[in-house]
Write a structure and sequence with these properties.
globular; mainly beta; Thrombin, subunit H; 6-stranded antiparallel barrel; 6 strands
């Protein structure tokens, strides 16, 4: 079976890959994310949308699942997240926020090298509604 790779011309969104360290700081606080790779070209496609109630009845969290396709990159992990600075998103222009909070955040759920040839990665990522 052969895999049909994504046309590089369709990878027209620039994303940043952030790593969320798993070890706490010496004082016990959660460490800030660390930039792993910046300006990576990728294709972002919506796959599935769900809405579920959370703790309180009036709280509703929507989750959008996306398939993000990018060139193969060593070191991508499930604890990481992708950040897309969507020009249409208002939060992308808010420079008072830390860099890892500027743009649309996609939490990595699964990462697959479809044919194990280290050419392309298919990432299943979840974007959660922030309530704004």
């Amino acid at each position: 079976m052969s895999i049909l790779y994504t046309d590089p011309g369709l990878m027209d969104r620039q994303i940043d890959v952030w790593d969320q360290p798993s070890e706490p700081n010496p004082d016990g606080s959660k460490p800030d994310p660390v930039l792993f790779a910046a300006g990576v070209y990728a294709q972002i496609l919506g796959v599935l949308a769900t809405t579920e109630a959370t703790r309180l009845k009036e709280q509703v969290v929507s989750k959008l699942t996306h398939k993000v396709t990018m060139r193969y990159m060593v070191g991508i992990r499930g604890r990481m997240f992708l950040l897309y600075k969507d020009p249409d998103a208002t939060a992308a222009s808010d420079t008072t926020l830390p860099a890892w909070q500027q743009g649309r955040r996609f939490d990595i759920d699964r990462c697959v090298d479809p044919d194990e040839h280290k050419f392309e990665l298919w990432i299943l990522a979840i974007e959660r509604n922030d309530g704004q």
